[in-house]
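### Sample
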Amino acid sequence: MFNLEEKPKEPIVSDDFLKDILSKRIKSTDTIKQNEFIMKIGNTNKFSKGDISGWIGLAKSKKTFALTMFVSALVGCLRLFDVFNANKECKVLYVDTEQSPADVQRVTKRIQKMSGAEDNLFMYGLRPYSAKERVEAIVLLLKEHKDIDVLIIDGVRDLVMSVNNDVECTEVINLLMKWSFEYEIHIATVLHQNKGDGNARGHLGTELYNKSQSIIRITKDENDSSVSTVEEVIGRGKGFEKFSFRVNDNGLPEVCELALNSINVDKAPWE
C-alpha cells in the first residue's frame, strides 16, 4: 500500500550536472552563435546546423533521389537547377540502413556524377546490423568523422524495434537532437509515410514531426508516375515553393523545368 501522505523523494542531482544545467541559462545580453544554414532551397535558407529534418514519403516516391540532389549540392558546393543551392562546401556522413551494398553504391555513384567528386562523402551501408547495433555504429562513425557538417540517416525507422514503442522512439529522437547539438551538424532523416492517412509512421513519425526544423514530403505525381513533387509540409521560418523532379535517361534526378515557373534552370553538371 502507498502512503498518500508520504512526500515523493527528490531525484539526486550531482554537482557536475547542476553546474551543467546552470550553464544553459540564456540571457538577452549573451553572445550566441546564430543558426548556420547549410543550404537554400531556391532563395530560402533551410537546414541549419544543430537541428534535424525529416524527409517523408510513400514507398517508391523517390525519397532517396531527392536526397541525392540535396547531398550532391552540399558535397560539391553547387547550385543544382537553382533549387538546391549550397551555402558552403559540406562533408556528409551518409548512413543507409536498408539497401544492399550494390544499391548503396548506386547512390554513391549518382552523387559522384552529379557533384563531380566524392572526397566529402562518407557512405556506409548498415543493413546487416540490428537496430541497437546501428545506433552504436552511428555513434562510432560520428567519432571517426569528427569534422562532418551533415549526417544523413536513410531509414531512421531501422534504429528502433517498433515505430510505435513510445519509449524507444523518444529515446532515438532525443539521440538525434543530442548528436546535432554536440557535433554541431544537421541531421536529415528518411521515414516512410502511412498509406492511409499520409502521416509519418508511428510514434517515431509523431516525434519527428514535433522535433524537426523541417518536414519535407516527396509525393509521386498522380498523373505521371515518373515525376515526384517536393514540398515542405512543416517548417520553422519562411517556407519554399514546392517543385517537381524526374529521373532522366542517365538515371540521375533532375528538376522539371515546367515545375519551376519563373526560376531559371542551371545546366546540370553532368551535361
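Confidence is low (pLDDT under 50) at residues 258-271. This sample (AAA family ATPase) is used throughout the tutorial notebook.
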